[in-house]
């Protein structure tokens, strides 16, 4: 197949790589970025949007909301994803609520947090898998969640993925 999604080039060739690069750079995919990528690849914006919304790894929209996606496929579920979701819900419930204010004040406050249960992140051999912002964590343990959430809310881990093997050798990417 000469026009694959994961390789570089024009058309759909390299589309996934282009979307990933944009998300790593900004932490999310804006409508403008999707339009630019479509124009660069000579694709319909609906094709690019369809690919970006098909894969759970992509965050489309405003970065003022921290999205946490927890894989709940059978292998992640058996590895404890339900416990992770319950703990995340407890941690998020303890966060300070939204605060009113001017546009400038709202721009600088911590983002809202949304937890999503997703069907599969394609990491069954390293489950349970969790995406916090745009960063994928593998073999997540519940004791890690408070620090991961704290870092993401501070802007530390949500935007820039680490190398394929994290410092602890457990495969955080």
UniProtKB/TrEMBL annotation:
Keyword presence, DNA-binding: no
UniProt keyword Iron-sulfur present: yes
Protein name: NAD(P)H-dependent oxidoreductase subunit E
InterPro entries attached to this UniProt entry: NADP_DH_HndA-like, NuoE_N, Thioredoxin-like_sf
CDD domains in UniProt: TRX_Fd_family
Alphabetized Pfam families for the sequence: 2Fe-2S_thioredx (PF01257)
SUPFAM superfamilies: Thioredoxin-like
Gene3D superfamilies from the UniProt entry: Glutaredoxin (3.40.30.10), NADH-quinone oxidoreductase subunit E (1.10.10.1590)
Keywords: Iron, Iron-sulfur, Metal-binding
